[in-house]
Every structure is written in structure tokens, then in C-alpha cells.
Amino acid sequence: MVNKNRQKIRRTKGSGLAEAAVAAIVLIPLALGMLDIIFIVLANSINDTACKNAARAAANETNGTLAMDAALKSLNSFQPSSIIPSLQLVSLDIPPTADSVACKTKILVILPVPVPGCSQITFMANAVEPIVVKQQ
Amino acid sequence: MTSLRGIHYGARVKKYQRQSLGGAIALSTALAFFLVVLGLGFIALVLIMGAENETRNAVDSGTLNLGKQALDQVSVSGAQDPTSWLNGVSSDSTDSSVSTDGNITLRRINRLWGAALLIAINADAAQNDGNAGSGESDAQQACQQAQQISDNLSDKLNQASNLYGFFTDFSTANSVRMMGLGTSTKVLTGGNWQTSLLERNDESNLVIAGTPPNFNLPPNYNLDSSVFTQCTRSPVPAAAANLYFLKGYAPITAAGQTFWQVPYQYDEKPHLVSQSTFNQNMATAIPLSWTKPVPNSFSAEGTTTKTGSMNQVASSFVMTNPNQPFQLSLPHSFLHIHVDDMKSHWWFFPTGYPPLELDPTETYGYTTDDQTNIPSFPGGICCTSVTPDSVEMGLEVVGQPLDGIIFNYPYGNTSQVESYMVNRINEMVGAVGVTKTASDLHSLLQDPLTTGELIAGVQDFYIFSPDGQNLSCMPEPLAIAKSPWLAPLISNSPDGTENQIINTTDPAAIFFDPIVVPAPFCSPLLELGFGFYGKIVGWTPGTGSNGCLGTIRVNRWTDVYSLGVCNPF
């Protein structure tokens, strides 16, 4: 009788471990997924800021060539990392009226927790700034 | 057979098992829930922070555009009258030939006040010389006109609703996607749309040509050092190193009136400023004696437009700057030169002394002309008659351009005439950094065309700047053809009174033997004919309130003396 009870105790202890494992299968991906989402949001914020800075720098120049140079220069402060390996200027548009600059940047995010079929994502950001200098 | 102890033990184990199973599930569920909530909360926080950043960017962009557009898109009328001095400053160009639109904007406001100030300075200078005429009252009226327009502009700029559109144009163009798709940043109306008066006592965008303290202003008029400054930027841009500017938000007094300027640092652009700087310089914080100061800084507030959720609000502050200097000038103005008919006066010595003008005057021109006159009875001492011989007139003016007519022999105080004229030609020139010297004046007046025009009988010439940089001196029809803006102004007279700066006579190269008929029983003793050239140059100052900066009147004549003395013995 005592031996049967002891066997039952051992089976109970084993089921607890299994339950913990099952819980972990749910909880850990959940946590890692949220981590991915947080990184995505932060990366977008970085992209937005970089895009705005590029547009603002371009809007302070007197012609398209200088504007492009200024925009590229403003992105030089970006330091690539394993999670965000690249941040690029996609386009810099100055309309014929030369009253604004529309800047578009692209950021590549490698998810810290890879998702099958989606380990890296590209995000775009747009910014429009008024040109405050006389165009030559 | 199961013992009682075994049954109790088994029951405890089963109870223990049931308790363990329930605890693990509950704990896992609670942990999962907690993790999800924490994670979602953190994500939401990051999204909100990102949205806050995006909102701030959008508001900054909208506010920057507001600062830029407020310079030119907010305007007041009042300068359309082409006969008024106001019309000349209602343009963004210093080129007088560019058409004006009659509107005053933040870009042009300093031109307006500057022109009114120049009118007042001209009036004060004339007052000091004692020939202001109606100049002082005209200057006061000009100041009131400038004040009225300035007040209207201030009212418009302080009306926030006039600026909303400039803000929205750019705030909505920047996405706030972290708040959700379709969200944008729009105007948040309210008390956070304010104006401020930054960079007080820094330079305005109105350059004063010349060097202190006279600055090519009327002779003997000096600007007080409290009203002008050099560039206050550090380091000073090379192009501004030698420039002087009127001070902004500092009262400038002339003709009993107060004039103002809005400060715009040299070569600056519209830019964002800090809230503390903005608030510290608001008119409510540090009032000016300017009743309705024209602001150079604006604050704006925007909010996101997502319904049913917490919206972001952000403010931004911008200081505007036209990044375009002008020069203190009266763009649509002119200087009138009038040359009177030249006359010959015939003098005789019937009683010995003084001589008497007994013969009628005659007129001569800019080519030589042999003249004589009728006999004068008795004409001389112990003479029956004295008749002047043929005298060649016009030797002093033949072949001379207008410069020679004004400045050549007989001379007189030509330097003073020159000073007034140089001052006035500088007041016409609006191109920044361009100054005119006495040499430029004489080069202008030495135009050979003026010689031909004088010979042709032209008596009125007009000096004006057709492009704000160069000068022309022409008769009326040609002047109007070159600068049509002169047409409604050219017949205006200066508002001062004439002061004869030069009134001189000097010996002329005229020698002849008059024909002397002695009285009965007398014989000719002395027959001497000689001449003098005379010149009057009068200066009538004009403030420029009607376009006329003044009139130089030149009056030349020749005195011909016929001295006849006969001996009765």
C-alpha cells in the first residue's frame, strides 16, 4: 500500500514538470513575441526621427544637390547594429514650387527572436519639411 | 487487507495531488495573464512615446512652415496709391522698375518704417537749415501712415486664425501612424497660439549705407548711436562685416515721431526657438513702448485627431526671418534740377556810381551769341549817349553739360550743393551696399546728352534711379519713358523752401569799347566795357513724401557794364 502511494507521488511530481514545460511553451514565445514587437516599435521610432532629421537638414539648403548631401550626412550618425543593420535614404523630393522637401527613409530590422518566414522586416518612414531658404 | 493508516495516507496523497494540479494551472494562467498585460502595457507605452515623438515632429514642421509663410502670405493693403511714397516700398525687390502690389508684409515692414524715417530725417535736416516749409507736417503724416499700416499688420499676425492654414499644410503631411492609421496632427485652437518679440535691439534687415554717424544722410545730420548697430551674430558673416543696420524693437525718433523696426539677424532663416526664450520676450512679459508691435515669433499648438482615444498635444515656437536685407531708401523718388533762362543785364554809369540797369534784359542760350543793346541816354558822365558794343554771350556755358552749369565758374559754395545732391542720390538707391559718391554725381551730370538738351532748350532735368542701383538724369519725357512710376510724381514740388546756397558774381572775359557820344562841348575821356558772370544756385529740400527729394535751381546771368566818361574841359 505504501509502495503504491509512493509510485503515485512520483507520477504527480513528473506531471508538475510537464505542466511547467507546457506553460513555458506558451509563455516563452509570448514573451519573446512581445520583445520582437517592442523592438519593431523602437526601430520605427528611430526611422521616423532619422527621416525627420534628413528632411530638416535638406530643407535648410539652397539647391537640390546640397539638400541631398545634407540629408545623407544627417543619416551618417546612425550606427548599424545586429538588430538594425541598415538605415537608408530612399528618396528626397523637392517639388517645382520648391516650398517643401519630402523625405523617405527605409530601415531594416532583424528580429531579435526570429519568426519562421519573417526574420527581417523593412519599414518606411516619411517626413515633409518646409524649405526655409531661398532656392538658387 | 488495507490498513487504516494506509487509507489515511493515501487520502492525504490524493489531496496533495489535487492541490498540486490546481496550483500549477492557476499559477501558469496568472503568469501568462500578467505577462500579456505587462507586455501589452509596455508596447502601448512605447507606441505612445513614439506617437508623442511623431506628433512633436509634425507640430515642429507645421510651425516652421507657419514662420516661413507668415513673412509673405499675411499682408495688409494701403500702399497702392502710385502718387504716395508708400507705393515704392510695397515690393520685395530693390529694383525700382519691378512693379509694386501695394501690400505690406512682414518682409517689407522695415522698408515701410525706414522710408517714413527717411522722410522725417529729411524734414529734421531742413528744419535745422531753416527751410523745412511743410516738411515737418508731411513727415508726421508719413509716420502716421506707416503706423496705421503697421498696426493693421500687427493685428493680422496676432490673429491666430490667419495662421492656422500654414500650420496645417505641413502638420497633416507628416504621419502619426503610431497613433493609428489615418491619424494626423491638426490645429489645437486656444490660448497657446501667441506671438513674441525676440532679438530685441539686434539688427533689423534694413541696412544704412555709408559710415557713421552721417551715413549719407543730409549734411550735418547724424544718427544717434542708440538706433543703429552692426551685425550681432557671432561670428559675424563676412558679407556683413562692414554693414550697419537700424536696431530692431528700439525706438527711433525723428521729426517728433517714433519709428520702429522688426529685428531680423543678418543671413538667418526661420528657425525654431525654445519655449523659455519665447515666453521671456512676449510683449506681456517685457512690454515695448510700441503700442502694437509687429511680432517676429509665433507659437503654435497641434493635436492628433484619433477619436476615442488619448490624443497627443504638442507646442512649438518659431522665429521668422526673411533672410533678405534692404537698404534705407525712398525707392520712388527723384531730384529735380531746374535751369532758369540766362539773361544779360546792361548797366551804365550815368551818374558815375552806382551803375544803373537802363537797357532791357536779353536772353541768351548755350551757344555763343553776339549781343548788343540800345543806346542809353545819357548813359555816362558828360555823355549824350553810351551804346554797348557787340558782346559775345554764353562763353561761360557753351559746350557745358549740366554739371558745368551747376558747378562751374563762377563757383561759390559748390561743396554744399554737392553735399545735398550726393545725399539725395543715395536716398534713391535701394540696392544693399550700393553707395553713391560725389564722383558718381558729377559723372552723371557730365553726360554729353545734357549739353545737347540744354542747347535744345530743356530747362528741367530729373535725377532718379530706374533700378534701385544706377542713376539717370533726363528731361521729363525721357525720364517717364524709362521709369513709368515717375509719371504721377514728376510734377510734384518739394515741400521745403528755397535757400540760396550760391549767390556769386565773378569777372567775365568780356571787354569792349562802348560807343560814347559826348555831351556838347565835351570830349571822350574813358570808354570801357566789361562784364561779370553771376550764378545763383538755390536748394529747395523735399522730404520725399510726394516723391520729390528737392529742387536745385540754377540761375545764371551776365552783367555787361558800359562805362563812358567825357571831359567837359
The count of β-strands of chain B is 24
Structural class of chain B: alpha+beta
| Mean pLDDT across residues of chain B | 92
Largest sheet of chain A, order of strands side by side? 1-2-3
The sequence of SSEs of chain A as H and E is HHEEE
Mean pLDDT of chain A: 85
Number of domains of chain A: 1
Q: What is Rg of chain B?
A: 41 Å
For the termini of chain A, the CA-CA separation is 99 Å
Work out the helicity level of chain B: 25-40%
Question: How many domain modules of chain B?
Answer: 2
Most residues in contact: chain pair: A-B, 39 and 47 residues
Characterize the biggest β-sheet of chain A. 3 strands, antiparallel
Radius of gyration of chain A: 26 Å
Number of strands of chain A: 3
How many helices of chain B in DSSP terms?
10
What's the layout of helices and strands?
The complex is a heterodimer of chains A (136) and B (569).
Chain A: H1 2-59, H2 64-74, E1 86-93, E2 100-115, E3 118-130
Antiparallel strand pairs in A: 1-2, 2-3
Helix pairs in contact in A: 1-2
Chain B: H1 4-69, H2 109-129, H3 135-158, H4 164-171, E1 185-187, E2 195-196, E3 203-208, E4 228-229, E5 244-247, E6 252-254, E7 257-259, E8 271-272, H5 275-280, E9 297-304, E10 313-319, E11 326-327, E12 334-339, E13 342-348, E14 356-357, E15 362-364, E16 369-371, E17 383-387, E18 391-393, H6 402-407, H7 414-428, H8 438-445, H9 448-455, E19 460-464, E20 472-474, H10 476-482, E21 499-512, E22 515-518, E23 523-541, E24 548-567
Parallel strand pairs in B: 3-11, 12-24, 13-24
Antiparallel strand pairs in B: 1-9, 2-9, 3-5, 4-5, 6-7, 8-10, 9-10, 12-19, 13-14, 13-15, 16-18, 17-22, 19-20, 21-23, 23-24
